[in-house]
Specification:
71% helix, Ferritin, mainly alpha
Length: 169
């Protein structure tokens, strides 16, 4: 039964990109858990809770991405050895400072956003509107989260770009 009305030729690139995103999210998820277990500092309580929130969200996205691959009538990649081999996100030691952890997470966000963009481009070519919609909401959430984490690691005297309001003030 072909309820998708999308040819396999068009779907194969989408599946490939979704599996790369699945690998990225899986390594990202484990990195977040590792940071959650190992964070130390005066920011422990805030970061410990935030990291748990992040890895819980990542776990849900992993399942949704895998289920999207299944919905498209293919098998998702499901072994960690393959994830480690293909993911653009790499393991790091958890024995780093809280600020280094956040910087590492923000670097991972950049990679996740790039992979989402590549996946959406292939989904657009295939006419796969549901994958585009799913990843569009992921992108918006990850961009907002990145802004918040970046604000957390800044100094109080740091400022955002003021070019658009310079004449007002």
């Amino acid at each position: 039964m072909n309820y998708l009305n999308i040819s396999d030729t068009k779907l194969i690139p989408v599946i490939g990109e979704l599996n790369l995103l699945l690998a990225d999210y899986s390594i990202y998820y484990q990195k977040l858990r590792s940071f959650h277990w190992n964070v130390l500092s005066e920011n422990f309580f805030d970061l410990h809770d935030k990291l748990e929130e992040l890895y819980t969200d990542a776990r849900l996205k992993i399942d949704e991405i895998a289920e999207r691959v299944l919905t498209l009538r293919y098998h998702p990649v499901s072994n960690y050895s393959k994830y480690l081999e293909t993911s653009s996100i790499k393991e790091v030691s958890p024995l780093i400072t809280d600020v280094e952890m956040i910087s590492e997470i923000l670097g991972d966000h950049q990679k996740l956003l790039e992979q989402m963009k590549a996946t959406m481009a292939n989904a657009e070519k295939a006419g796969d509107k549901e994958t585009i919609a799913m990843l569009g909401s992921y992108t918006a959430n990850l961009e907002k989260l990145s802004w918040m984490l970046d604000a957390w690691r800044k100094n109080t005297e740091d400022q955002l770009n003021t070019k658009s309001i310079e004449k007002v003030y």
